[in-house]
């Protein structure tokens, strides 16, 4: 099956290219791969991953559905498993992938993102330096079991990570309508993790103060957007608070050009699929979670006020033993 799909893809690429352009040379330039890496894919020794398929599809206007066959029941998935030895490189590649997705979506005024989140979404916290840094610090701590971890104050992000975080925020804020379903325990769960690192003496008092201040700013911004029902750049913002916890984070992204489904696994890793049936199933699942949730954007004034006041109280009280 793998070789058959690979052969179909190579045939589609040949048909899309002018006759004088060699497939291998074209793919080396398009995918930034070496000659041997490209030939392994052409021979079928290695499969094209989902990111590569997406790039090829966009560049040559090739339908992946047509390659698979309209009656084929196969669904394509890609999992971005971030490893210790290349953590920052893979994290950057993931940011580049989603930044490109948002860039493609903003061309279409009715593009949308729906998410059910059991932790703070990237779009909520990446603009806050200390919170964004702490998430990466936590993941590095978890992955680097064989190395001593430095204190948070001595942990520095590569400039490329900082720049790509900013680019992600810029594109995600200006691309689509957003529906977010947030587990009501997201903040307390995050703060419990912060408290754990504080007790390990890896966070100092100033670190705690900085993170708390950024969380207060984030809550203020979210409350303001919830009242107006407007996401950045005048996009619609539907914000739900769930009365149950989720087992993981789900998202669905849609525009006339494509659908994309993602499911978070092992905290930082993501399973992705452009397969329409998978995307629709994921969308249906996210929408079903609204039954357990309360809409607080442009409605539910009392519930919204109580929720944000409670989050601020949790933030004030979490470090009082």
UniProtKB/TrEMBL annotation:
Domain of life where this protein originates: Bacteria
Name the record gives this protein: Transcription regulator BetR N-terminal domain-containing protein
Organism listed in the record: uncultured Dysgonomonas sp
